[in-house]
Amino acid sequence: MRNVAIIGSTGSIGTQTLEIARDNRDINICALSAGSNIDLLEKQTREFKPELICIGTYELAEELKLRLKDVDVRITYGMDGLIEVACIESSDILVTAIVGMIGIKPTVAAINAGKDIALANKETLVTAGHIIMSLAKEKHVSILPVDSEHSAIFQALQGNTHGDIAKIHLTASGGPFRGRTREELKHVTVGDALKHPNWSMGKKITIDSASMVNKGLEVIEARWLFDVNPDDINVVVQPQSIIHSMVEYRDGAVIAQLGTADMRLPIQYALFYPERRYLRGDRLDFSKLSEIKLEKPDMDTFLGLKYAYEAIKTGGLMPTVLNAANEKAVALFLQEKIQFLDIYTLIRESMDNCVNMENPQLGDIFDMEQWVYNFIESRCR
Ligand code: NAD
Ligand code: MG
Asked: Is 290 helix (H, G, I), strand (E, B) or coil?
């Protein structure tokens, strides 16, 4: 039996994790959490019968208690509740399907409690990668990547030796604005940016894909997950999202993982690693595939990627600044308070004005997150 807890169970990754649970009778869902989608959390609780659930606020928790009077489940709320879900005694593995830096505390708590982590919540690794990876080593827990590119790299690494890695080729679809100029990006709308060509995902990561900040965050995520130098991580645009990423070894061999654009595969691989199980769904049909295109990313237009390389090379708190500025800027863009290109401007200004430090601890990371939020609020008044 695989005993699984999920933070962020009502989102894109969360609901697909529950699809895997529906298809695999030996998955037991111990605990679930959601921000505010009370209807779906109620439905999930009735179907999967977890011991514990958590919702964003006290008021929503009280409402859920009324609705779930007939069900034997403990109901918590807020950050304390998230941490309880993350550390629940009966679980073996935590799926971090929550979005943003709010995932840091529950992830750290789960590692301290000895839980393996199926990690989708990349913002946690981007900002606290140095803390998470060394803590995981100390506690002998596995960090299993759910992000499709990182799962592909992880799959391509099986049976090989870390010292033989020459390069990681991280693929990117290029998003809905691939090929556009800066001028053409000036007035794009939220609706335009939410139209991803290949993947259906939560709103924040979909905007990040349009700006290519997502690929920048993924370079940093790969740096921590696979302990590689950022200079050895090469981003390749592969518009059809068929090659999910590749590892090049020192003898010149390149090993890739290919497949359809379906997040259930990396989720299932993380949950049952090293076992591969049957997965319902489409297969690649090479006879219908006319081409697999590969291009260089346009880092002068899609500055998110350029800034991310700069942030990880600078180190310290700079990846936190990049990530926090992006989280805030994307929220403002989704509320139609700023234009698309302002996302890059706000990241740039935050990176230029922050005071960096080496080897930050968790408290320093949260302080910097707050500084960035205040800084951007003062800029956008
Ligand atoms: P989503 O927006 O669809 O879902 C986010 C989940 O987190 C929801 O259940 C929501 O209720 C919960 N949540 C959000 N804010 C919360 C808060 N303040 N308190 C408690 N819960 C909160 O997001 P998603 O697309 O599933 O992405 C989740 C993570 O996985 C992100 O870090 C994303 O970058 C990463 N990821 C997603 C995909 C994908 O295909 N969706 C692919 C790769 C990586
Ligand atoms: Mg990805």
From this structure: coil
Please tell me the pTM assigned to this model: 0.98
Contact present, 270 and 279 (Cβ < 8 Å): no
Sheet arrangement for strand 93-96 = 74-77, 52-55, 27-33, 2-7, 93-96, 116-119, 143-145
225 Cβ closer than 6 Å to some ligand 1 atom: no
Strand partners, 143: 117
Q: Which amino acid is present at 258?
A: L
Interior angle at CA 283, CA 277 and CA 286, nearest 5: 135
| Nearest protein Cα to ligand 1, atom 4 | 11
Q: Which ligand sits nearest to residue 244's alpha carbon?
A: 2
Scored b (16 or more CB within 10 A) or e, 301-335 reads bbbbbbbbbbbbeeebbbbbbbbbbbbbbbbbbbe
Give the DSSP per-residue string, 5-32.
Answer: EEESTTSHHHHHHHHHHHH-TTEEEEEE
Convert the pLDDT of each residue in 172-205 to its tens digit: 999 999 999 999 999 999 999 999 888 889 999 9
End-to-end CA distance of the chain: 53
41 lines ligand 1 (CB under 6 A): no
266 in contact with ligand 1, CB cutoff 6 A: no
Ligand that lies nearest to the alpha carbon of residue 149, given by its number in the listed order:
2
Which ligand 1 atom sits closest to the C-alpha of 82?
A: 20
